[in-house]
Amino acid sequence: MKKWYSAKCSQCGRGFRSQTRSELLSKIRKHIWKEHRAWMVARIKAGQRTSNANNPSLQDLIQGVQKGSSRAAISVARQMTEGRYQQVKKVLDVVQPILPLKAQLAWEGVEAAHDLYRRFKPKRS
Ligand SMILES: [Zn+2]
To answer: Can you give the pTM of this predicted structure?
Structure first.
């Protein structure tokens, strides 16, 4: 049985389907950059402002990612609330294609760790 990932563009409601999560993200990313570029730029800027004001550790996370250090970035990510992490993720998912390869891989590592952590958490409590 094949699993389909689907999502809608939050701006125009257009639906997207893919068999992998990363393919789905890249489809949406391309669509958003093509059709809603001004909105995306505004949103990245707003996201950076809010995050910097409320949570200095966003800076640490981004520094870890930039250095290509998943370990450093993951330890910061784990201290974040889920809501904060999702905000950071939105920003990083968008900028990921323009990051250096090392930074892209570090961010993939953070995401993998986050997904595992979320999956393990219910069993612990
Ligand atoms: Zn759209």
So the answer is: 0.48
Q: Based on the number of CB atoms within 10 Å of its own CB, is 95 exposed (0-12), middle (13-18) or buried (19 or more)?
A: middle
Ligand 1 mean position to 34 CA, how many Å? 9
Dump pLDDT digits (tens) for 25-57: 899 989 998 999 998 888 877 776 665 555 546
Q: Tens digits of per-residue pLDDT, 66-123?
A: 888 888 888 888 878 888 888 888 888 888 888 888 888 889 998 988 888 776 554 4
- Is residue 84 within 8 Å of residue 124, measured between CB atoms? no
Q: Closest Cα to residue 48, out of 10, 8, 79, 90?
A: 90
**Spatial separation of the C-alpha atoms in residues 63 and 68, rounded to whole Å:** 9
Report CA(42)–ligand 1 centroid distance (Å). Answer: 15
CA 39 to centroid of ligand 1, rounded, Å:
10
Q: Where are the beta strands (DSSP E) in the chain?
A: 5-8, 15-18
